[in-house]
Amino acid sequence: MASIADTASAPAADSTAAEVAAYLKSHEHKSLLRFITCGSVDDGKSTLIGRLLYESKLIFEDQLAALEADSKKVGTQGGDLDFALLVDGLAAEREQGITIDVAYRFFHTENRKFIVADTPGHELYTRNMVTGASTADLAVILIDARKGVLTQTRRHSYLVALMGIRRVVLAINKMDLVDYSQEIFGRIDEEYRDFARQIGLHDITSIPLSALKGDNVLVRSEITPWYDGAALMEHLENVEVGNNSQSRPFRLPVQWVNRPRHDFRGFAGTIAGGAIHPGDRIRVLPAGTESTVDRVVTYDGDVEEAVAGESVTLTLKDEIDISRGDIITPNNNPCAVADQFETTIIWMSEEPMLTGRTYLLKIGAKTVSATVAHPKYKVNVNTMEQLPAKTLELNEIGVVNIGLDQPIPFDAYEDNPETGSFILIDRLSNNTIGAGLLHFALRRSQNIHWQALDVDKDVRATQKNQKPCILWFTGLSGAGKSTIANLVEKKLYTMGCHTYTLDGDNVRHGLNKDLGFTDADRVENIRRVAEVSRLMVDAGLIVLVSFISPFRSERRMARELVEEGEFLEVFVDTSLAEAEKRDPKGLYKKARAGQIKNFTGIDSPYEAPENPEIRIDTGSLSAADAADAIVDHLQKTGFVKAR
Amino acid sequence: MKELTHLQRLEAESIHIMREVVAECDNPVMLYSIGKDSSVMLHLALKAFYPAKPPFPLLHVDTTWKFQEMIKFRDETAERLGLDLLVHINQEGVEQGVGPFTHGSQVHTDIMKTQSLKQALDKYKFDAAFGGARRDEEKSRAKERVFSIRSAQHRWDPKKQRPELWRLYNTRMAKDESIRVFPLSNWTELDIWQYIYLEDIPIVPLYFAAKRPVVERDGTLIMVDDGRMPLKEGEVPQERMVRFRTLGCYPLTGAIESKADTLPGIIEEMLLSKTSERQGRVIDHDASASMEKKKQEGYF
User: Fold this and answer.
1) Which of A272-276, A397-401, A445-449, B36-40 has the lowest mean pLDDT?
2) Considering only alpha carbons, which residue of chain A is nearest residue B165?
């Protein structure tokens, strides 16, 4: 435990007040620079950040005491201060000696506050680097002077360029180990510039450094007289911060509608580009309605101008309908609206991306359903080579087309990262599983009006004297799904109903004969069946679908394709032991013998329904009784008329 | 071109985070600890929803051992701003007579703070709770997300934390899960004080130096705030000019000797200080990974 803090020397009250006031005044005008550091442990990255914190006097005595103790215990500098220990956070990774997540560090100088996103350089951690880069104005890429431009240097630079960071500092570190050689520095600098140009990075500043010895970190070192550029800290203090967000067209993604009383309706959000003033003419997307800005409201009073980066509230002259997720734009410079895009996706989940599965996509303040197509290609981040791919795995990056369930306003990422970036969320785990950049729309949504037909679903259903629906039978192989579905269809037919049954046999042999049994193919299999079922419901039919359909999210996707109430999940509940005992087609035996791969219940999971509309316990109900119960349910719920 | 200052950028970010929670969560709450960070967080909430009032209540988890001046400030603040203030006390702990002098800092903090907070969150079924924690406070916090998912048992699982890119925060959660949200993540102690100064935000007078009765124990100055503090043999409270850099339970919060009785004075002292603000907190002085362990258990 540290001792009681020193009593601060008692300053004369008046001069203190004046001095501190002056100090605070100067700090009112401090700017903020967010940067990311890329490099591996071996490049001395943690040492460099530790050094920056230490040199900017942000290490307190108690922290220094802890550092001294830690340096002796687990340090790698033979008992000298190991600055890396200052920044390697969680206990587990400190022991492993690698950083495995993004850490944010803070320091400040007279002119600037800095936020450093410290990300590890290991190949597996693309995810972390992309995360750190998404909010950075500048990247510091570390190179070990002894090793020069390595594969990982190219990887880091590619990711930096991909995420739209334009300014790079090439920190050529460990110069002390190459005798501060100007020649080596020049060679690395040249080689790097050649490469950087190819990936579109042009604003490069190379600095010869020794983070360990402190050379060219804070001030220029005498040991490199041949270097006439700025030291790292000097450069960071003076480099121009502004991205060009204020010179972009005005964008306000509406985050929240503020209605404290009936005569005030404000649209709150953080300005994602440009500037806005009272009197500006605006257009609201996707609706396309127009109005004029009345007031720009803040807690500190109305303002005459608000710019990109500020969180404000707008009121308009006209009462038009605006909700969360809409974007307010200038009437003469609106963003585009579309529902299909080419994107780059960075996959961040252990579970691979599944083509055809619907994920939630959050862009700005809007969340929609998105379906991903097969990747056009994935990118080898080490060589930038384009490779064919069926899916994306953890930390893979690919170009993928996506389709949304509704059109959204957007800009291309390169035009505006804030209105052109999105995250993908898994519907079941709720995890953020991917991040993406929008490139361009595949078609303009204006062109895809559904043909409005006079003969619609209601008319067709009335003609058939029934309410259309999907009876979705799910359960293990051998549970009795098809047997029960057949009995139900027979009963409905005799009652004069119009039905159709989709099952593995009539679909796998035709429509889906190109699909196998991998997880991705199973998802696609169900997606097609669900889409066909939807068309049949639209045709007015009662559709019986009999598929193992092991994944909850696909069944949910099918449910969401049709109107509420039209999807009835029938869980044919049989234990695995019982199904395996019955084994009507001998499949379990083969699966156990390893002759069939990815067999549900054996080496592929079955996710039982949580709230099925109908549950059939085959242990207590015969197939005929089960069919009766289902038809009974359809009568009670009004899908078919009781006769 | 109008260049935003660092405080303007931090303010806009915090406001954005708060609005996102209100737009996406069903039942948010602001954990109000009465300290300077809470004061700043509350001020930002007033800004975020203006002219509406913040559309959520404040929750104070009262360990019953807070400084009396804190409680007075808390009640006056809620009254002045017309906000809904919920105060939760762990009654079981009170009945068992749990306190820092009798049970030690660890047991007291666990029962009256950590467990009590969980009780309150369960009682009101809050799905999102704003907290004033900052990443610069402690090494293990440097990697904390702005939106931090907690299990139904309020536990923090480092493996379940989601990547946060751009300004896109994922607020989706399963039933009974909740989110802790830290709008001040990117603020430093200096930012907080500068902002309090510039915006003229009211703070508890304990931050300013004044003559207060203290005793010195194990190198820490403890203020005798009420009659519950048992004095050891030979201990006589002395009137000394002291103030506090952080506020918590009075028996667990060390004072520093100081003459800084104005905001500029405090800021100057902080700029010259050689110790971090957490140094005054008695509970942090365990092993160096202790904050991380407390966080996993559900301590904020």
Assistant:
1) A445-449
2) A131
How far apart, in whole angstroms, are the C-alpha atoms of residue A148 and residue A141? 12
Q: pLDDT tens, A549-558?
A: 888 888 988 9
Express the helix, strand and coil content of chain B in percent, nearest 5 each.
45, 15, 40
Write the residue in B2, B170, B267 that is nearest to A307 by C-beta. B2
Cβ distance B20 to A365 less than 8 Å, yes or no, reads yes
Segment B75-99 mean pLDDT: 93
| A549 assigned to active site | yes
- A91: chain B residues, CB-CB within 8 Å: 140, 288-289, 292
The partner residue sitting opposite A28, judged by closest CB among B5, B20, B168, is: B5
Residue A298 with chain B: CB contacts under 8 Å: 47, 50
Residue type, A134: S
CB B6 within 8 A of CB A113: yes
**B300 to each of A301, B61, B177, B276, B294, how far by Cα in Å?**
35, 12, 16, 19, 8
What is the pLDDT confidence band of residue B269, given thresholds at 50, 70 and 90?
Answer: confident
Distances (CA, A) of A127 to A1, A130, A132, A432: 39, 5, 9, 11
Answer yes or no: do B142 and A269 touch at CB < 8 A.
no
Q: How far is CA A583 from CA A489, A589, B135, in A?
A: 24, 8, 58
| A311/B256 touch (CB, cutoff 8 Å), yes or no | no
Q: Which residue of chain B comes nearest to A135, CA vs CA?
A: B166
Taking CB atoms and an 8 Å limit, are B258 and A7 in contact across chains? yes
Q: What is the pLDDT of residues A183-207, one digit of tens each?
A: 999 999 999 999 999 898 989 999 9
User: Residue B68 carries which side chain, given as an amino acid letter?
Assistant: Q
CB contact under 8 A, A299 and B53: no
**What's the mean pLDDT in B41-60?**
96
Note whether A592 and A601 are within 8 A (CB). no
Point out the catalytic residue in the list A134, A477, A549, A553: A549
How close A318 gets to chain B, by Cα (Å)?
19
Q: Does the distance separating the beta carbons of A435 and B163 come in below 8 Å?
A: yes
